[in-house]
Write a structure and sequence with these properties.
Layout (H helix, E strand, L loop, with lengths): L2 E5 L2 E4 L4 E8 L8 E6 L6 E6 L6 E3 L7 E6 L4 E6 L8 E7 L9 E2 L3 E6 L1
Parallel strand pairs: 2-11
Antiparallel strand pairs: 1-3, 3-8, 4-5, 4-9, 5-6, 7-8, 9-10, 9-11
Length: about 120
């Protein structure tokens, strides 16, 4: 049974930082592309950042480029999202995803973690 468990969300002021973590179990983590998506109220879910399985190549949405960094620790089966210089428009529920290709998500999702950025 695949499980993705996110943590690290919360309330932060604009300009602040948060680090999200996603701990995976039940899948060969090192073989899976991993990604972070987010969904703001009234908006569609969007890809934020992703990292490939083998080379660790990273890709970011234009809106977060230069501010967010995705990384993975295969030994800990964990993917991270370091978020700096946060803006109110980054407010959303952030979801971890496994098995995606490019911006298309894979079949496995975490439960989501709320990030709220106050102005």
């Amino acid at each position: 049974q695949v499980q993705l468990v996110e943590s690290g969300g919360g309330l932060v002021q604009a300009g602040g930082s948060l680090r999200l973590s996603c701990a995976a179990s039940g899948l060969p983590f090192s073989s899976y592309n991993m990604g972070w998506f987010r969904q703001a109220p009234g908006k569609e879910r969007e890809s934020v950042a992703r990292i490939t399985a083998l080379s660790g190549t990273t890709t970011y949405a234009d809106s977060v480029k230069g501010r967010f960094t995705i990384s993975r620790d295969n030994a800990k089966k964990t993917v991270y999202l370091q978020m700096n210089s946060l803006k109110p428009e980054d407010t959303a529920v952030y979801y971890c995803n496994a098995g995606g290709m490019h911006a298309v998500p894979g079949n496995y999702w975490g439960q989501g973690t709320q990030v709220t950025v106050s102005s």
